[in-house]
Structure formats: C-alpha cells, structure tokens
Amino acid sequence: MRWDDDTSNGERRRCIFPRSVKNKLFMGQKGKCAYCGRLHRIRYFEIDHKYPFSRGGGNEIGNLQLLCTPCNMRKGIQSDEEFRDRYWRLLPRDGSIPDPPVSQEAFSEETEYTRASYEVRRIYFERFANARRKRFAHARGGGGSGCGFALAVWAVVIIVVCIVIAFAI
Ligand SMILES: [Zn+2]
C-alpha cells in the first residue's frame, strides 16, 4: 500500500511518512513553519494534515504541511482554513508563510481577543433572543393566561366575600 493511497479500499489509516515527504515539504516551505514562519531544523517540525485526518482528511501531499510543535498544538483539530480564519489578523490572506515571523505570544493574544469577542457576541445574542422570546410569548398567549389568572382571583375574592357575608348574617 502506498503511503498516499490509503483510501483506495475504503480503509483509512494513519501512516508513517517516508523521509522524502518531509524533505519535500521542508524544501517547499524553505525551512519555515507554515503558520508562525520561524526557521527550524527539520527534526523540530511535525507533519500536519491541513484538513485533519481525524475529520476525513487524506494523506496526499497537498493536504500536508510542516508546523512547529506550538503551532501544531494550537491548530489541534481545526482545519487549515479554520485556523487561518481565526488568525486572519496575523496570517497572510493568500495562505503564504508570514514574514516577519509571528510570535506565539501574538497568537495567544489573538486567541484571547477572539474568545472575548465571541463572549460579547454570545451575551448580546442571548439577551436579544430572550427579549424577543418574551415579546413573542406576551403577544401570543401571555394576555390570555393573565386574563384567566385575574378571573380566578376575582372568583376567590367573591367566594370569600360571600362566606363572610353569610357568617355575618
Ligand atoms: Zn510555528
């Protein structure tokens, strides 16, 4: 079985890439990490599936890139596209390797920033959704049930008054 042909019989398996694959990627990226752009020795690079293997990505060379360990950990199970979308402020839009290199601190700051903005949006949308839900509930049946409740209260009051009057007489 060829290393890049693992889907031929419908069976998918991780494979040990031959040295030549890593060398080829290394040459293609000029020894730089695809995300942070830092120069490393080849042995410090990890072969990453742009579209994660765990999500159905293949072992073909077009789906592979070399990342340094921190970048690979940061990427996790995100696809290359998702990663670049998330860090669009730091990474070139055309998918090329950033120059000058991006520091891991910059990635961390961007993560915090993204998380904060997600949180703000989440809170905003939750409030908005709740307000809308309340308004709908009120318009739909809130008045009706309120009316029923008022009737029940009045019925109790009248019964109590009757009983009091009956006892008084
Ligand atoms: Zn990196």
Notes on the protein architecture:
It is a single chain. This protein has 169 residues and is mainly alpha-helical. It has a domain at 19-102: DNA Binding (I), subunit A (Orthogonal Bundle), CATH 1.10.30.50. The protein is 53% helix and 6% strand. It has helices at residues 19-28, 69-75, 80-86, 104-168; strands at 45-49, 64-68. A two-stranded antiparallel ribbon has the order 1-2. The radius of gyration is 31 Å and the shape is rod-shaped. The mean pLDDT is 86. Zinc ion binds at residues 33, 35-36, 38, 67-68, 70-71. Zinc ion binds next to β2 and α2.
Any chance you could write out the topology, listing elements then pairs?
Elements (H helix, E strand, L loop, with lengths): L18 H10 L16 E5 L14 E5 H7 L4 H7 L17 H65 L1
Bound molecules: zinc ion (ZN).
The site of zinc ion (ZN) has 8 residues, from β2 and α2.
